TrEMBL record:
<dbReference type="GO" id="GO:0006950">
    <property type="term" value="P:response to stress"/>
</dbReference>
<keyword id="KW-0238">DNA-binding</keyword>
<keyword id="KW-0804">Transcription</keyword>
<dbReference type="GO" id="GO:0016987">
    <property type="term" value="F:sigma factor activity"/>
</dbReference>
<comment type="similarity">
    <text>Belongs to the sigma-70 factor family. ECF subfamily.</text>
</comment>
<dbReference type="GO" id="GO:0003677">
    <property type="term" value="F:DNA binding"/>
</dbReference>
<feature type="domain" description="RNA polymerase sigma-70 region 2">
    <location>
        <begin position="23"/>
        <end position="89"/>
    </location>
</feature>
<dbReference type="InterPro" id="IPR000838">
    <property type="entry name" value="RNA_pol_sigma70_ECF_CS"/>
</dbReference>
<dbReference type="Pfam" id="PF08281">
    <property type="entry name" value="Sigma70_r4_2"/>
</dbReference>
<dbReference type="InterPro" id="IPR013325">
    <property type="entry name" value="RNA_pol_sigma_r2"/>
</dbReference>
<dbReference type="InterPro" id="IPR039425">
    <property type="entry name" value="RNA_pol_sigma-70-like"/>
</dbReference>
<dbReference type="Pfam" id="PF04542">
    <property type="entry name" value="Sigma70_r2"/>
</dbReference>
<keyword id="KW-0731">Sigma factor</keyword>
<dbReference type="InterPro" id="IPR013324">
    <property type="entry name" value="RNA_pol_sigma_r3/r4-like"/>
</dbReference>
<dbReference type="InterPro" id="IPR013249">
    <property type="entry name" value="RNA_pol_sigma70_r4_t2"/>
</dbReference>
<dbReference type="InterPro" id="IPR036388">
    <property type="entry name" value="WH-like_DNA-bd_sf"/>
</dbReference>
<dbReference type="InterPro" id="IPR014284">
    <property type="entry name" value="RNA_pol_sigma-70_dom"/>
</dbReference>
Amino acid sequence: MSSDQELIELVLQGNKQAYSQIVDRYKGKMYFFLYGMIGRPQDAQDLAQEVFIKAYFHIHSYKPDYSFSSWLYRIATNHCLDELRKQKRVQCIRQENGSHEENSFAHHRTPESIYLEKERNAVLHKYIMELDESYRAVLVLRYIEHLSYKEISHILDVPVTTVQMRLYRAHKKLRKLLKITEKGGTDHELCEI
């Protein structure tokens, strides 16, 4: 299997098949990242395609100082944030009643535990979607994509301390929302986001 850098060199030489290998390598990660940011499966799929098209036309600007995946996540983050801003403007113009898609990553054995996990994820996902995009981005990059603070810093083009502060504030806001919802129940574990 070729490295990202080898494939990029081939793409720069005009080999479109090499780019399809890059897409195959990262399409799953991009989809789940964008789904975590936008919350709707079809929109995440559309955005992922747009990100790969944008990356293809700007691949000449990639510098190998950082990993290709960081560069790709940066494009995806910026594109997604632009889309979220655009949607906010549209929502101000018209009110929509959309259905909430549930995010289910149930991996447990019993039907009861599957149901509880599904409910927990739905509540957590709902509150993550209510957070400001800057907080949502760091949560998704850190806990879903498992990126380091340094990688997130590069992707979002902010200092590492800003990433840490945003994660802290996002956790604080989520804990507050979850405590209000559960009133007397146990807190959700934020380390499992």
